[in-house]
Amino acid sequence: MAAPRLALSVFVLMLAAVMLTEGMRGTGPKKCCFRFNENQLPKERVVGYTKTSQQCPIPAVMLKTVAGRQLCVRPSATWVKDIITYLEAKALPGKTSNL
Prior knowledge:
single chain; alpha+beta; 38% helix
């Protein structure tokens, strides 16, 4: 009779430990940039972009290239703004970007 109680107790303790460690992870950003590509890319080589989370310590844009690579770049760079404008105009013909 003691063995099932012991097994149940161990199971409950393990479950509590797993839930506690999962809860401590939080819901932080999935990707942040800490190193940046400073070399200008031709806009024809870029197929998409995403902005990193506002929870990241440094604002960044991740450019996706035709080769499938993702490069971190600074959103304040003029050439990055030009690429974003180009991509948005290509996606929505006749509309202009807010950047």
